[in-house]
Amino acid sequence: MALYIIGGNEDKEGSCTVLRRFVEAAGGEEAVLIVIPAASGDPAGAGEEYRRVFTRLGAARVEVAAFASRREAAVADLVNILESSTGIFLTGGDQLRLTALLGGTELDRALHRAYRRGAVVGGTSAGAAAMGTTMIVEGPGEEAPRAGVVRMAPGLGLIREVMVDQHFAQRGRLGRLLAAVAHNPYILGLGIDEDTAVLVDDRQRFMVYGSGAVTVVDGREIEHSNISDAGTRPVALTGCRLHVLAAGYGFDLALRRPLLPEV
Amino acid sequence: MALYIIGGNEDKEGSCTVLRRFVEAAGGEEAVLIVIPAASGDPAGAGEEYRRVFTRLGAARVEVAAFASRREAAVADLVNILESSTGIFLTGGDQLRLTALLGGTELDRALHRAYRRGAVVGGTSAGAAAMGTTMIVEGPGEEAPRAGVVRMAPGLGLIREVMVDQHFAQRGRLGRLLAAVAHNPYILGLGIDEDTAVLVDDRQRFMVYGSGAVTVVDGREIEHSNISDAGTRPVALTGCRLHVLAAGYGFDLALRRPLLPEV
Predict the structure, then answer these.
(1) Which residues contact B27 (CB under 8 A, 6 or more apart)?
(2) Which candidate from A173, A235, A242 shows the least CB-CB separation from B246?
(3) Which ipTM was obtained for this model?
């Protein structure tokens, strides 16, 4: 079981550090990859783009699983190619489009089976946001945290007790991630910058890759928040713990403890 | 001794909650205010704008201390009006223009004397940024925290052990404030949103006013950071403490403890 969660806008032209790591994790030259562009408004275009990049990065085989309806997501062919894959990649777009199309279908169950048997499930932007049990659907960036304006929904449930936000620094999303975490502080908030990723392994540890940072919001020590009364007024919360991790750093999700680079 | 630190872009047309509180703190109908527009690229315009607003909000008298050179900042007239004021207001613009013009002049000394005898010193945006002993001059928003790109300089020194950043949520400045704090974690980072202010009293406590939030970054518990090696690569830091405070909340700077609204 491995998840690869990318904060969006990863390099696809240059050294492709972030996407290269995904291909490696899925088996490198032996990788059999399935791109699921269901989040995208242009699934054919998005699928083709990643097919090209992953092929260039040396994957043995790359298929695009394009489907336009929930009914198509139950077709045996699609389900079969998922079952023979070593890596599955969820493109960006709209996380609600992704979950509305995929959630609860035969393909969704095949995705979870593939994940449990060891395929790496990767996702960028909307594909990253959707990975948690609960996902952020929308909420303004670049403003004070407010409760009433962060919209959440059930995600794909590939990772528990973690809520992912993406394009994190680039869209000024600290406020909305804090507001989301304050709703139920047992949730760990992961704010992933663009061109940055975490690879979560089966021991519930992740390592950071790419050019940006990953901001970890640990709400368990929150002493006070006004979330239940705040409505659309600014959220206040005190005693939150914050870690900022760059490439080479990691985090133990079970122990909620940062992992420092070995010197 | 009181400081009034505004995160910029405060309401000047509607209920003027933030500016009204400044006028009240400076004596309300008995307030004698001096506007120092030295940070502004259009000092006459900025001075006149605040003169009009403060007059409308009921101040007894509002003067604009416009000066274009360090020599003019030593003129006795200017120094005298500062000495009879109950409130001094530093406009927005460029914090470096403000400190380069004012710092170390006779007017700067008069400002500190007025502050010590009890005049309220207020500032917005650049005027807020300049209040600490060290100030952030520039540094990109909306990206991962990086050490080499945050430029700092000596500020006016009206408040110690505190570094102020403004337009905080609106310009996605968590990264640069964290990077600034990581340079020397005894510094407390104050990220103030637009249309939001803190009033710091002589017991080193502040209260929050306005429509946004104030993010307090307490770096004293930072366990690890790579700031000294990071160069222009992303900064990593672990164990930072974060509080987000809205109107009605406060903070004890000496004890580094949030103050909750009384129920």
Answers:
(1) B60, B86, B87
(2) A235
(3) 0.85
Predicted confidence band at A263 (pLDDT cuts at 50, 70, 90)? Answer: low
What Cα–Cα distance (Å) separates residue A170 from each residue in A8, A9, B141, B142?
A: 10, 10, 8, 4
CA distances to A155, B71, B175 from A256, in Å: 22, 57, 22
pTM comes to 0.91
Closest CA to A210 of A4, A47, A2: A4
Collapsed DSSP state (helix, strand, coil) of residue B208: strand
Structural domain boundaries enclosing B86: 2-259
How far is the C-alpha of B76 from the C-alpha of B82, rounded, in Å?
A: 10
SS3 A191: strand
Q: Which two tokens stand for residue A93?
A: 């777009």
Alpha-carbon gap: A224 to the closest alpha carbon of chain B (Å): 8
Which residues of chain A neighbour B236 with C-beta distances below 8 Å?
A: 213, 244-246, 248-249
Nearest alpha carbon to residue B94 among B39, B137, B140, B136? B39
Distance of residue A32 Cα from the nearest chain B Cα, in angstroms: 33
Determine, yes or no, domain membership for A152. Answer: yes
CATH number of the domain residue B149 falls in: 3.40.50.880
Which active-site residues of A does the annotation give?
125, 143, 167
Q: What is the pLDDT of residues A114-141, one digit of tens each?
A: 999 999 999 999 999 999 999 999 898 8
